Amino acid sequence: MRTIRMDSKRTTNAVAAALAVVALTVAAPAARADDTTGTPAPTTTTSASSATTGPASGTDTSTPTGATTATASPAPPASTAPATAPATAPARTTARPAPAGTFSAAAAPTAVIPRTAPVATVKDLQVRLKLVGQFPYAITGVYWSAVDRAVLGFQRAQGLAESGVVDQATWDLLRARTSSPVALPRTATALRVKDLQVRLKLNGRFAYAVTGVYWSAVDRAVLAFQLAQNLPQSGVVDQRTWDRLEAATASPLAIGRTASTGQLKEVQLRLRAVGRWAYGITGVYWSALDREVLAFQQQRNLPQSGVIDQRTWSRLVALTYTPGTFDQHRYSAGLAPVMPRLAALDSRCRTGRVMCVDKATRTLTWVVDGKPLMVMWARFGRPGLETREGTFRVQRMYEYVISNLYFTPMPYSMFFSGGQAVHYSSNFARLGYASASHGCVNIGDHALVKSLFFKVRVGDKVVVHH
């Protein structure tokens, strides 16, 4: 019986050993498969008893003395890489989406106009925000909280990201919303560019010659004008800038299309004197007059308004009327003489009440306390009977008198030197300078001399000079 038990134990041990060999055979491919991925396989320990499905009832399952536990060791890897990863190998990470219910911090938008921007840039921003109705305050160039609110309001109204920061998208849209059509491009004609340069010069923004060439100094002048006028600083002459520049350089109208015939004749005469009127002296305002006025303005570097404003008229008068000379064309056209400036009068005529008679201009000017009030054409004595020159006083006055020598009427006579007087002359009114007086100062305008007669008093000064 003892022999039988020993055989039974040997048989059991043999079966266990066989099962251990089978387990090692199964484990080896797994280890090699792990080696192919570069990940070492963990060490697996398998007991002989776990490989069985369970002992039969009454069977002794205890391990005999001297038996050892079978251990499955991984097969060495095919490559030379170590079985375990080195300590310095970087850990592999995999990007995973954020779990539901969590938020990631978005990058702050980049400001193209930060709060520390220059004053001029901030003014440009404020102007544009005002134009879109978001900034009701003064244009100061100071970036304060109201600017933030205005930017935010614009972004909200335009469906932009409401950051309150002037990022590129906000700035581009704001400029688009406040743009204005170009009125005068860089490729404009020389005459139009001259007009621009003249107006910028009048505004104190262009210090160079008026050439009609659009160069960098014009760009700078336009930008400076826009900055000074609180306009969007585009640097180009858009319609908004041009309208403001025209208004800033406007001059009051001097002679309009509805002016009197006498005024229009004077304009035509003066234009003829500067070579700009080849038509008849009609006193009619027609299209040719518009063209010639515009041509005169272009020639003389004046704003090209095409109308006779005060600036144009003053230049035309200065070029065609020189104090101290007689403009015979004006008289022949039936025009009144030009009211002289005080500085152009004889020094003796600048104080008190004076009838200032100028033989050079053939005029009489009524001056009171240094202010010329009336001017009229005058005619003087013929050779041998010249009107005496000097300073005199009004000695006597007659509303109507007849000459004792020549038996001619002398209405509104104001005697100043013996028988010489200032008076109305029907002969002068009829013949003009084709005739002459016997020494008196003749006035051919009945209404003017009558008005003068009732202003002058005995004792007032009379100055006759050449």
Automatic annotation (TrEMBL):
Residues 30-73, 80-99 have a biased composition (Low complexity). The keyword Transferase applies. Pathway: Cell wall biogenesis; peptidoglycan biosynthesis. Residues 1-33 form the signal peptide. Residues 353-465 form the L,D-TPase catalytic domain. Residues 30-99 are annotated as: Disordered. PROSITE patterns: LD_TPASE. It comes from the Bacteria. The active site is at H423, C440. Keywords: Cell shape, Cell wall biogenesis/degradation, Peptidoglycan synthesis, Signal, Transferase. InterPro entries: LD-transpeptidase, LD_TPept_cat_dom, Peptidoglycan-bd-like, PGBD-like_sf, PGBDSf, Transpep_catalytic_dom. This is Peptidoglycan-binding protein.
